[in-house]
Amino acid sequence: MKPIPPERREAIPARLGGPAREPVARVAAQEGISPATLYLWRRKARQSGALLPDHDDAPEGWSAREAGLQRLQRGDRDRIRHLESELRRREKALAEAAALLVLQKIARAVWGEEDA
User: C-alpha distances in angstroms, 86 versus 43, 78, 100?
Assistant: First the structure.
């Protein structure tokens, strides 16, 4: 068997995780790699911090830790979405205030230094 490039070796275990994960047997057949090798790569990927199921391809194969992390990530996405909308709102308010200051400066230049 010829050696597999490192980038390919990292991409294959990624197919085993996430919502669109594929069964080990199918990935092994498609890639021409033994299932035992894929299980080894998956275990090493998990040890390096990747979110992959323990020993099972079904959702029940996820440990409580990963399930909690997925909820946390979903919560983080919601928080990021909220913060981004707040940032857009504040940017609009800042742009409006800057425009009013420019108009005030122009009005003073045209009509003099009178404050209203």
Answer: 41, 12, 21
DSSP string, 20-51: T---HHHHHHHHT--HHHHHHHHHHHHHTT--
pTM score above 0.85 = no
CB 21 within 8 A of CB 57: yes
- The rounded distance, in Å, linking the Cα atoms of 49 and 51 is 6
In the chain, what are the domain boundaries?
Answer: 6-62
- Architecture of the CATH domain 6-62: Orthogonal Bundle (1.10)
* Cα–Cα dist 46/53, whole Å: 8
Block residue for tokens 């919502």? 19
User: Residue 50 carries which side chain, given as an amino acid letter?
Assistant: A
Q: Give the chain's largest Cα–Cα span.
A: 86
Q: For 33-80, what is each residue's pLDDT tens digit?
A: 888 888 888 888 777 777 666 655 455 555 555 556 666 677 777 888
